[in-house]
Amino acid sequence: MASIGDIPVQVEGAPAAPAEYGNALPVLSEVRHALAQLVDGGEPTQIDLGAMPFGPGDEDRLMALLGSGEVTASVNALGLTRIQETAYRGVWIVEYLNTDDQRVALHLEIATVPQLLRSPPADLSDALAALETQLAAAEAK
Amino acid sequence: MTAMDFLMLTKGPLFQAALAVFALGMLVRLVEIFVLGRAHNYAAPRGSAVLGGLRTTYKRFEPDPGTFKAAPFDVVVGMIWHIGFIVALLLFIPHVELIKSTFGIAWPALPNPVVDAVTAITLLGLLAALVHRLAHPVKRFLSTPEDYLIWGVTFLVMLTGWLAYHRIINPYPLALGIHILAAEIFLVVLPFTKLTHIFTAFVARYYNGAIFGRKGVQS
Amino acid sequence: MATSSPQRPAGQSAPTMDPPLGPIQRPTLGESLRRNGVSRRGFLKFCAATASMMALPPSMAPAIAAALETARRPSVIWLSFQECTGCTESLTRSFSPTVENLILDTISLDYHHTLQAAAGDAAEHAREEAMRANAGAYLVVVDGSLPGPKANPGHSTIAGISNYDMLMETVADAAAVIAVGSCAAFGGLPKADPNPSGAVAVQDLVKDKPVINVSGCPPLPMVITGVLAQYLTFGKLPELDEYNRPRAFFGQSIHDRCYRRPFYDKGLFAETFDDEGAKKGWCLYRLGCKGPMTYNACATMKWNGGSSWPVESGAPCLGCSEPDFWDAGGFYDALSVPPGNSGEMLLTAGAAGVAVGAGVGLLARSKAKSAEKQHQTVTAEQLEQKL
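The joint structure predicted for all components is written out below.
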């Protein structure tokens, strides 16, 4: 099947300059509030950007305002999850992709470490057991 | 009947009917006044009747110092809510759209938050006016049921509009329908009550001013 | 869409099988995910995306995880009546297959005309089988309106059964009914004036079971699956609005969540579809946008995998998730504009008013004139004589 990009579209005249919708700044002030909460009480916050009334360009503007920091990470479970620390330490962009690389959710996480990067406690005992089994198998040889 | 049926009824047939009653009733009253005319004055004019009439039509917007001294509350509160009513009626975006579709003319409107604030002030002004009327023994004595009726229809139209804007009544088509119905009651009541002053006040001012203008008297 | 086709194709549930599994014996979602090799991190991610889909805050993800861990697969019977299959199209064109598929794989879609493999008797048998096996626990999803009990049932039948009979029979033992699309929820296009088939909405007929309306023409795919996910996760019905729609998705108007709202408040409008204002993305109120009276999630969830939605592409909202939107005035007339020709009415009534007023005025004048003519002078002596 032809992709939508294959349809020839001709734009007449110069396109108008993108409007400034101004919906990024309120999110930034929500982030500021969440960061203050993290500093004061250590309480992490997650913000669902999918629930924001963004117009075209608003998300890009927010990302430009947040910038990028030192850490990037990816988690490969049920599709890829891209995690990027912003220029503001403790503010993380978490983009969840499905197995077809389409975005299923976009969150901002205000925490010292994003939840998804931590090893789930229940997995630790499983891992310990697996490691012991392997050691035992190696010693038996 | 669903909320949407109600809205379509108030927006459609009821609006047309209210508009017809209003236009017919108001024009009967105004044309009757104009056709009756005024008694012929045989005295030689000492000034322009037209200029005097126009001047007084405008001048009466300015509160008279004597009246202000005697009843400052009536002047200030009355002025506030009258201006608020006119601003909400004529400078709210959806109203301008309605006027444009009905009369074919339009003008710039005010931002919604401004109209919202003006409406709130107007509602408070109307409430204050009612409390004052009830608390003041002379005013209460002079008030007729008609006075309370026109206060009621004016207050209702403002209140329902404000409730619809803030989505306090749900579902929304019901809120909007109630507001439109209140406006229709206002339109129907208008030609048959003191509300005709919306139009006749200017006729009276002009005639008054014209009489004095012809006599060369400042008024 | 292959992955979200029925888990248990209707043809397989033949009477020769073991007694069908009741709702209690079905595996939990946690079990089925782990069996499919989904890690705990994957599960957490799934829950985060599910929270997004259910319009819940991300902090709810752990609660969703805990609930889903033990959730059981509900049986779903999907009935399609007077509809255009647009709702099913919307559902199956959802762009985030991982999450939706998990939800759809998790429910047991036991009957769906368009998606099921079986046909004819076998299809109808699957419906009866699912009803019998899950009595009191299955969900009925309806898309399309149906001829009411007094209308000619011949307007819409399936396998010789009238829509009305099939709905009432299927709903009798259901846990709840989900009316998907504006036709099922409010009557939609079939009910539009003059309603030739006597169409009614599901909630007009089903009075003794909870009915959840998921309106829209079609509804957002995420909203359809979100409502299913919510039922699956928490096992209870969501909070509903005045029209029995889940508040999580229909709680706010398009207008209040619209990214173009600042232009409305500033009074900046597109006057035509290609003027400067339209190009600058100003408010579409004057072009007929029904956003102020329309409650839906388009402004945030958007369409086609979150790429855009009508207002973003320059088209005013038609109000498709509201009752009777087909008959609610012109699509391109501003919301406050009344239907019909008010200007003409005003002119006619005004002309009549002028005529009557002139008549009344002239009558009064001639009365005054004739009174003046008949005016007789009288002297004091004459008066005294009379007395």
